[in-house]
Amino acid sequence: MRYIWLIPLLPGIGAAVNGVLGIRSFSRRMAGAVAVTTMTAALALSLLAFWQLLGLPGDARAYDVTIADWIPPIPLATHDAIGLFHVTWGFRLDPLSGMMLLVVTGIGTLIHVYSTAYMADEPRGGVARFFCYLNLFCFFMLMLVLGNNFLVMFVGWEGVGLCSYLLIGYWYEKKSASDAGKKAFITNRIGDWGFILGVFLIYYTFGTLDFRAVQNAANTMPIEAAGFGVLSTICLLLFIGATGKSAQIPLYVWLPDAMEGPTPVSALIHAATMVTAGVYMLGRNAVLFQHAPQVMTIVAIVGVLTALMAASIGLVQNDIKRVLAYSTVSQLGYMFTAMGVGAFSAGAFHLMTHAFFKALLFLGSGSVIHAMGGEQDMRRMGNLKKYMPVTFATMMIGTLAIAGIVPFSGFFSKDEILFQAFLHNKAVWVVAVVTAAMTAFYMFRLMSMTFFGAYRGPAWESASHGAVAVAAAHGVPHPADPHAHGHGGQPTHEVSHGPSDTGLGHHAQAISHQPSAISHDAAVHDHGGGHGHGHWHGPHESPSPMTYPLMVLAVGAIVAGFVGVPAALGGGNTIEHFLEPSFTAERSDSGIADRGGRTAEPADIRNPQSAIPNESEPHASTGVELGLMAFSLLVAVAGISVAYKCYVTSPEISERLAERFAGAHRTLTNKYYVDELYNATVISGTMASGRGLWTFDRQVVDGAVNGTGWLTVISSFFSGVTDRSVVDGMVNLVGWIVQESSLAFRRVQTGLVQNYALLMLFGIFAFVGLYLFVR
Amino acid sequence: MITNTHYMLLSAALFMIGVVGVMVRRNIIIIFMSIELILNAVNINLIAFSAQLQNAVGQVFAIFVIAVAAAEAAVGLGIILAFYRNKETINIDEMNLMRW
After folding, report:
1. What residues of chain A have any CB closer than 8 angstroms to a CB in chain B?
2. ipTM reported for the complex, 2 dp
3. pLDDT digits (tens, 9 = 90+) for A703-719
4. Cβ contact B23–A761 (<8 Å)
């Protein structure tokens, strides 16, 4: 455990190697191997560290490692004294970060493996770049998870945002992808603004940034039940940060657009890990939030509204990844609801189970997209369970898990949240249950449109037998697509890419074109188990590096819930007790901490608002809990059966409904016009103010500069005139006076030798005369 | 009897002829010749006194003067030649380059 700082470092090394050497010189296989190896090593270390953590007694499960000073102590003012601002590169392993650690490294490793197959058709340097970014993301994410103070966490926080931007814009030549990257980054910046302000205020209030020290200090402060004090302000600012990173109202708009990135990225970053960073951060600061009940209420309301809104949008989306994206937003809303009602461990539990089944669903959708040659529109799929049984089976498990069907993981975590919401606030519970029904509906809509019903996709080119024969052999009614046929078995094979040209395919084709004869045979075999390069030969099961992670995640999606079986079902709710120490202040903090410690009545600290008398009794009877479970199960089954009826048995129902409620349908399809609203208000406001400032700059600032320049020109003109007339005039005057006054004398100098001689003679005469006569 | 006075009168006459020649003539060659007259007037004086005083120094001086005059004539004729090549004249009035 002394070496937990190696866990983030290993993917960091992988990223450096792939970034410095890989992009220039590694083969695809080599780049993938480097990335997968470093992640596997990090996973092994994490498992070891986690094992050692489990070996410690329940109350002492925390381990701090400080590897270096980051900011040496410098004096800095706090609200009541001059404190020492001291930040170290400190890492902390405790139950909460341990759980996140396993999620990040475990799912991260699986997704790295999956990516080696998914990205196999990318150009060589691109694959290395992809793995470099992916490893770098894991580096920052692990930093975020393991950091033991706010600033180390902030490094990770910003770093994952950066990697998210890089990976969303991985296909940067596509304008929509680079736009989505920018949108994600800028939206996240707004949240980060709140987060860093919160960190400033934390230092100003507590004089330290260490998580544990801040929690202990906050624990001694009174609960701000009535007013909106400094703790509430801190929590609100931190929550703004969380809304950005975890895609909550009002900053959720970037996540659906982030689906422009490669699907493994969506699975790792935009479903399993990065977007849960906000939830993790709230859990990290549980003590702070417990002292700010009003902010907790805000969190719960925002969470549940996000859940409802995103789920309702997800009902009508047709892009398979967008449905999953809105589902992610919705599930994150659930987690925030849990946090908001004080059920921190339920939220963290749902975070973990969600990481499994949502990563599974995303990877499954990636497999489907891969099979369909880049097609993402579910209206052009259907009946795929015939062609990709493994993907179908695993995705079905994921769907059952997210819908909350009984033995699967989502059931336990979601019901825990629903139960806590029921105890805490009935209105929140009602919305959450409606959302649960919607979740079951849209997930089965997705499954039905993708895997059931009739095949609606484009026809594919057969090998040498002709399309009809193959289609018939697969039992598919032959799609009537006239230009798709007629090439089978002809030597002009390679000119046709098959009808997938008309799809959205962007990576499956156009990479390699072998000579026709070879690809012809290879493609025939590909159809069985491999993935077709160049030509699309109809939907097919994905290669094993893609299916094995799916199977592992499917197992995870089944068993992950068993660590949190509630007491009502005869389980011990292990995870809740395991995570509990991370959400409370230290017990050893003498008498005061006892109020927050586990020795006090647990409900008091877990549900501070339950201290308000008219709140319902937190320990509701087992019967109520069981009843709620049965009810939510019923709701989920109802959602599933409605979806099955609408999309499998009689598909015309959904169309009729869409026509009947055209207005509502249009609103949902257009995502409540939130993007348009933001465009009309915030974005155009920013643009207008920018333009205003630009005008100000051009008119006033530039005007002042130009005016100064103009004044200089004018004044220098006058000083030039003065110089030329007055100064030069005086000099010239002196010269002229000298010249004129010398006129008389200079005549003497005739230049004629005889004149000089004459003068000399006269001189001699004069001197001789003087000598002779005057004496 | 020819006395020292006669020599000195001759010398003075020659000197005055030379001086007037230098002053009034415009041809630089004539001026040169006038200068030679002046020098030789001096020589006559020197030799006359040398003979009277029975002292050879005066004669030595005269010989020196002749040598210097020869050198001076060489230099002067060189200048005159150069001047003539430039101005195509030997009129002294044209030699006024050192004017103001």
Report:
1. 746-747, 749-754, 757-758, 761
2. 0.83
3. 999 999 999 999 999 99
4. yes
